[in-house]
Amino acid sequence: MGRLSFLILVLGSAILFGGCDSTTIYSPSRDADRSTRGERSGDQEEDLTSVYEDDLLAWLPFDGSPEDAAGGQHFAILEGPHYVPDRHGNSAGALWFDGVDDFATISQGRALQIPLPISVSYWVSLDQTRQTAGLITTSFQDSHNTGVFLTFDSHTGAPAVSVGDGGLMGSGSRKTLHSNIPLEAREWHHVVAVVDSVESVIVMTIYVNGLPAPRPSYSGGAEALDYGFGPVVLGKRVASEGQHPLFFAGALDDLAFFDRVLTPDDVKHLFEAPGFQR
Ligand SMILES: [Ca+2]
Question: What is the DSSP letter of 117?
Fold first, then answer.
């Protein structure tokens, strides 16, 4: 294929998948595309890893691969999910879970089970808002509330973040921050959850699409985090003791873990940065 016809193909794909704005196309392997992505035109991987350096524990862009772009240690081991178009229209740029039995684990998950604070950033598109499955849990167990887990309100799809203190499942062994921001189904949303411990009190913040939730609310009775011995799991969660896992139905992209409190400016940067852009 000649260079000109290749260029026409690329431009044609941009119009097909990305609308009329070619800056929405992300292609990590083609320098030619980088120059069209506006002022933040640096390489996507170099950008996040250089900005956050050692604070970035893991970053899974799911661009046709389960690799960890922040160093390679925490790749995803897929048990069913497959790649679907991302929010830019790239054909294999996000990971889709079928809501039936798909899930994934993350390798070397113990290294993500860190003392607080921890922040988690991700993009999500729910197939439907009425689902009770968890999307991310940093310690999956079927009987105890352990780790940090990211879920959605079972009716509105509003994102929530919880910590478990290691006790048997129930509201007394978790503390949950509900964003109370309903998510539309089949729309991409950026979510950041920040979990910290301040003078022995668990303090959490949820950002949706770059802004802190204005009216969040807490529930549950836990004030400590215990990771137990579960793996880091994406796409499924047991909601109450002795029940079968509930599976997430929707797409996940650009999942990143940080070992510090992300500031509002950090969140805005993640929301607007290449690879995190709507
Ligand atoms: Ca992606």
Answer: P
How confident is the model over 48-77, as pLDDT tens digits? Answer: 887 888 899 999 999 999 999 998 899 999
Distance of CA 115 from the midpoint of ligand 1 (Å): 28
What tens digit of pLDDT does each residue of 125-177 get? 999 998 877 899 999 999 999 999 999 999 999 999 999 999 999 999 999 99
User: What tokens does 172 get?
Assistant: 């007394």
Ligand 1 centre to CA of 17 (Å) is: 14
Q: Which long-range contacts (CB under 8 A, 24 or more apart) does 114-117 make?
A: 114/57, 114/259, 115/225, 116/195, 116/196, 116/197, 116/202, 116/225, 117/194, 117/195, 117/196, 117/197, 117/259, 117/260, 117/261
Closest CA to 207 of 182, 232, 230, 179: 179
CA 52 to ligand 1 centroid distance, Å: 18
Where residue 131 falls (left for φ over 0; alpha for ψ -120 to 50; beta otherwise) is: beta
Domains observed in the chain: 1-41 (no CATH), 42-272 (2.60.120.200)
Model-level pTM? 0.83
* CA 228 to ligand 1 center in whole angstroms: 30
Q: For 249, how many CA atoms within 13 A lie in the half-sphere containing its CB?
A: 14
Give CA separation, 45 vs 51, 76, 258, in Å.
Answer: 10, 17, 15
d(CA 60, CA 232): 13
Do the strands 233-234 and 118-126 form a parallel or antiparallel pair, or are they unpaired?
Answer: unpaired
DSSP bridge pairs for 82: 96
Question: Under a CB-based contact definition with an 8 Å cutoff, are residues 30 and 14 in contact?
Answer: no
For residue 3, what are the contacts with CB-CB under 8 A and spacing of at least 6?
A: none
